[in-house]
Specification:
By secondary structure, this protein is mainly alpha-helical. The protein contains 15 helices and no strands. α5 packs antiparallel against α12, α10 crosses α12 and α14 runs antiparallel to α15.
């Protein structure tokens, strides 16, 4: 009985064909695309389409009448020529460079100093670090409105405080063409310090303590230890902080609108505010798309740099 039933099973096992490798690979590839497809569709709808639409719009005569007629004829490079020949574009580009570089230097230096300071153990360390995070948690528009009240020339808290110290209490922080951009940079530094501190503090936690112990045994000074151990070990983290900081700073709009609205006399006009002014104030959507594309191109260049830096670090 057992011999009769076992024979068909043995014959079936011998005659069963092994799975087709090509079919297995095809099924595996379909499964992979099944997991990736939602992300690809999301990126295409919410990032790809707006990007392509913005590029196309920069070559069109897109005006308010387009919303009613649906007609937006191509005008070649007229929008690009108009933007590049505008004196305000040159000023906005210079202001963007100054604003970005000044903000990055201030945020990074102060953030690194605080990260090194909090890397030591002392009472209330965690509480103080949590309080420093508050500027990062507050919406940027709220921060801009609060700082606009603080920096007001007549009723601001800062001028009142400086007046009580005899240091002058009538500084036009936001109404002077020579002070407005500096004031906006200082406010943005205040907002960006927590981000730099948190990322750099996390990087410091990964530095082996044995290196500091060896440096102490060799009699290295604090500055020599910082320059020879801390900075080299933080180099990958510093790259990430600076690139991400650049990409978030170069396109800032809401803070400047809340503080100065690009004034006075366009002294705080940046590429971000120029895009807003062209598109939603002057209703010249083609010119606004041009400036927006320039911002996207600048951000894309640094995004590629960021990805390459991460890839090299992974190797």
């Amino acid at each position: 009985m057992s011999t009769t039933t076992a024979a068909p099973a043995l014959v079936t096992a011998k005659t069963a064909k092994p799975p087709n490798p090509a079919r297995v690979r095809r099924r595996r590839r379909l499964a992979q695309w099944g997991f990736i497809a939602p992300a690809v569709i999301f990126m295409a709808l919410f990032f790809g389409y707006p990007l392509v639409r913005n590029i196309v719009m920069s070559f069109q005569d897109y005006s308010p009448s387009t919303f009613f007629t649906g007609e937006s004829p191509f005008n070649g490079t007229d929008n690009w020529s108009k933007v590049f020949n505008d004196e305000l574009f040159g000023k906005a580009l210079v202001h963007t460079i100054l604003f970005t570089i000044g903000s990055l230097i201030g945020q990074f230096c102060i953030g690194l100093g605080l990260a090194v300071f909090f890397n030591r153990r002392f009472p209330l360390n965690g509480v103080l670090r949590s309080l420093i995070l508050l500027p990062w948690l507050v919406p940027m528009v709220v921060s801009g409105v609060v700082w606009r009240r603080i920096l007001d020339q007549d009723t601001g808290v800062l001028n009142s405080f400086l007046g009580t110290l005899g240091l002058g209490g009538d500084t036009p922080w936001l109404t002077s063409t020579s002070m407005a951009l500096i004031s906006v940079i200082l406010v943005n530094i205040w907002i960006g310090i927590p981000f730099n501190m948190v990322i750099l503090y996390g990087g410091l936690q990964e530095v082996p303590k044995e290196l500091y112990e060896a440096a102490a045994l060799d009699g290295a000074s604090a500055w020599r230890t910082f320059r020879s151990i801390t900075l080299p070990m933080l180099r990958p983290v510093i790259t990430v902080v600076l690139v991400l900081g650049f990409m978030s700073t170069v396109k800032i709009l809401d803070l400047i609108l809340a503080l100065t609205d690009g004034g006075p006399a366009d002294s705080t006009q940046t590429l971000g505010t120029l895009t807003y002014q062209n598109s939603f104030v002057q209703l010249d959507f083609g010119a606004g798309a041009v400036v927006g594309n320039i911002l996207i191109l600048i951000s894309a260049v640094f995004a590629v740099f960021y990805l390459r830096a991460n890839r090299n670090e992974g190797k």
